[in-house]
Every structure is written in C-alpha cells, then in structure tokens.
Specification:
Strand order of the largest sheet: 1-28-27-26-25
Radius of gyration: 21 Å
Oligomer: single chain
Distance between the termini: 48 Å
CATH architecture: 7 Propeller
Number of helices: 3
Strand content: over 45%
Number of domains: 1
CATH superfamily: YVTN repeat-like/Quinoprotein amine dehydrogenase
Largest sheet: 5 strands, mixed
Shape: globular
C-alpha cells in the first residue's frame, strides 16, 4: 500500500470520518499515463454523434460539501455528501424542491442503493445504515431503522472466539464488522442480498430481510476496495486500489463465494465498475484515464475451472484525468472524471466499437458520481429541443461533483441503423 501513483484518500488507523477531508480528495485523483497496450475502441466522429443532442436541464446546489453518491428511485433522486447529508430531489422538473433526509449521521455518505421503500447508505465511519419510508408523513421522509452490523448480529458473534479476526496488530474484532470506510454497495437483482466493500480490503454479504451478515471475505484484495457490481447470474466483481478486478461466485450448495478470476490490465487504482444490462460486458475505470471494456470469454467457459471469465476487448480513451465513476444504461456508458467532464459513449451494433457521443462540461470540480435512466423512447424532438425526423431514445443523466453541485442533463440519441 502507498506505492500506487493514484492513491486513495490518506487515512490514519483511527480516522472516524471524512467530513473535513474534501481537499484531500481533490489531491487523491491524480492520473497516470493512459494504457498504451490496450487498443482504443472509441471513434471521435460518427453519424450518430452528429445527430445526438444534449442540454443541461438544471443545476442542484443545496449541498454545501462534495457530492459523493447518487441513486435513482422512480420519482426521486437521492444524493449523499461528505458532510453526511442525504437529500431527496423530485425527478419531476415542475417540482424542484428538495428534502434533507439525514443530517445527523456525522459521516460521509460513500454509496447509496435502493430496494423498494428501503434505502441503504454506506459511510466513512465503517457502518451501513438502513432507512425506511415514513408513511405517516406526506413529504417522502425516511427514518433510520437499523445500522449494520445490527446489535443482534454483534451480540451473537462476540460470544465465540472463533468469530474474531485480527484486523491489525494486537487488535481483533468480529468478522461482521467493517473496520474502515465502506466504499460501495450493490444489491442482487431480486433485492434479497446486499454486498458491501470497504477500504479494509473485505467484502461482505448481507440478507436484506433481516439485515444479517451471511459472509465476509477477508483480504479479498491487497489494498482498499473501491467498487463492486453484481450480475444477474450471481457473479460479484470487485475493483481495488491494488489495480486488480476480482470475480467471485457462490455456486449452488456452497455457503461462501470463491475466487473465479482475477482481471489484471490496469496499471493504477481501479475506481469504478459498471455492467452492461445483460451482464456480458464489464467496464472498469481507473487512474490511468482509460475505461477498459471486458467481455465474457466464450472459449474459456465463462469462469469455470481452468478458463478465463472475461477478456479485454479494448479501451475507451478521451478523458484527461482519472476515471472516478461509471454507469451503464441501455447501450450507453457514461463516465465521470477528475477532468470535470462527463463523457457519453455508445456501443455499436457489432459490440466491438464505441463512439463518444458527447462531452458534458460545466462542473467546477471532479465528477465523483453518476446516475442515468431512460426518459422516453420513440420519435420526434431531440434532447436539445430541436425537431428531429428520426426515432431515438431520450435519457436523463445526473452527475455529482466535488464542487458540491449536481447537474441534470437530457440527451437524445437516435436509434442505431
């Protein structure tokens, strides 16, 4: 640890939160040279990029500290910041008012995921908090109903010596605890399982019905884990500051995940991961300024014994600084960078070529988090308000930055011919 050219936020063993560390974050996203060994899949011009329209709909400025996380619900956008605030914003442009949900956790909000009426938030203070909609109010308020690990889980585990693991020299704790910042969360497709990863180099699996910790994989990586995504067919992908992406799976009849594959191509810290809708393509972003595109290896058996799970197809290059966040929606991939821009990439019909449709500019700080969704699908006008005789898809893209603001973009993309 400490040898990488793009280090994570510097931490001391007893640090409790990052409320006052926004400046350190700004210095932690330095980039390294782009990967010359990975062929570029991106083209600078195409007919679809010429026909694409985008416009800035609004800028949300109520946060007073860097925005670390975003999550979409059907009617609301949720955002979390370094000073522990979680805000709810209406996705209806005619109702721009926001509601402060959680001003009291006193710890940076690193990640947010939603399952129905339940909100899960990951924090710098090593905890995961669970929030439920308060149905007694009219303003869509949430209240904290639990903190993970739960009191019951902690009490049950502390009674037996076998449940303790050594977290550092002369210090032990039960395996259900994270002992450093919880950096990212991901839900299984059916919402029954929650996966958390941490700077303590572990990932854990929680059951959402009773919030019990089912499994903890210690020393999953050699350095802090920054990102996690889950596929619909049961694979867990973790990205780390050790430059590696690891693929895990729990097979039928087994209680624990085991390592399926290690993807090694990045030369600096992996900051972000995203999966295509069908789970066949993995995108990874790192401090080397490149997004690597991985596809399942049909020859290797998809990660079976003796086979590679995924292989490198190529890279998406264009950002001038570290890639900090990724999101995939339909055939688009959105990337946010320390260069303060968002790039929109489109996968071609062949699956092996990509075009950069747009570069969204306007943030005054690194783009730390993204969310995106299909807005409408059909014919008629473009995202820039111009009429368009063709047919296409309209998207809403939300970008949060260390400059404390959130921007809402609309983008219209024509259908592939």
């Amino acid at each position: 640890m400490g040898l990488l050219p793009c280090p994570l936020l510097s931490r001391q063993p007893n640090d409790q939160d990052s409320v006052n560390t926004s400046q350190a974050h700004l210095h932690s996203y330095s980039s390294t040279s782009s990967l010359s060994s990975v062929p570029s899949l991106s083209s600078s011009s195409s007919s679809s990029s010429a026909a694409t329209h985008h416009r800035l709909l609004s800028t949300l400025k109520s946060h007073s500290s860097p925005v670390f996380s975003l999550a979409l619900a059907p009617k609301h956008l949720f955002s979390g910041s370094s000073n522990s605030e979680i805000r709810s914003w209406s996705r209806d442009p005619s109702s721009p008012d926001n509601t402060i949900l959680i001003p009291s956790s006193r710890s940076a909000v690193k990640s947010i995921v939603l399952s129905g009426d339940t909100l899960f938030t990951a924090h710098q203070d090593h905890k995961i908090r669970v929030w439920k909609t308060d149905n007694n109010t009219k303003n869509y308020h949430y209240r904290c109903v639990n903190t993970l690990p739960t009191a019951g889980d902690r009490l049950t585990r502390c009674l037996w010596a076998k449940n303790y693991v050594e977290v550092r020299r002369h210090k032990k704790c039960t395996w259900v605890h994270h002992v450093d910042a919880v950096s990212a969360l991901a839900l299984s497709r059916d919402g029954s399982l929650l996966c958390s990863v941490s700077w303590d180099r572990t990932f854990k699996v929680w059951r959402t019905s009773d919030y019990k910790c089912l499994e903890s994989v210690w020393n999953a990586h050699d350095d802090a884990i920054n990102a996690v995504v889950l596929s619909s067919d049961g694979f867990v992908y973790t990205g780390s500051a050790d430059t590696k992406i690891k693929v895990w799976r729990r097979h039928d009849g087994e209680k624990k995940h085991r390592l399926v594959d290690t993807l090694e191509k990045h030369k600096s810290a992996v900051n972000a991961l995203a999966l295509s809708t069908d789970g066949s393509v993995l995108y990874s972003g790192a401090c080397d300024r490149s997004i690597i595109v991985w596809e399942k290896d049909s020859c290797g058996g998809g990660g079976g014994d003796g086979g590679k799970h995924m292989v490198v197809v190529g890279g998406l290059k264009g950002h001038k600084k570290a890639i900090l966040c990724l999101v995939a929606v339909a055939d688009l991939v959105c990337s946010g960078s320390a260069d303060k821009t968002v790039r929109i990439w489109r996968r071609g019909s062949s699956g092996r070529e990509y075009s950069c449709l747009s570069v969204l500019e306007g943030h005054n700080g690194p783009v730390k988090c993204l969310a995106a969704a299909v807005d409408s699908c059909g014919g008629g006008g473009g995202g820039g308000g111009d009429s368009n005789s063709g047919c296409g898809t309209s998207y809403k893209i939300y970008s949060g930055s260390l400059g404390c603001d959130i921007k809402v973009w609309q983008m219209w993309v024509p259908f592939l011919e």
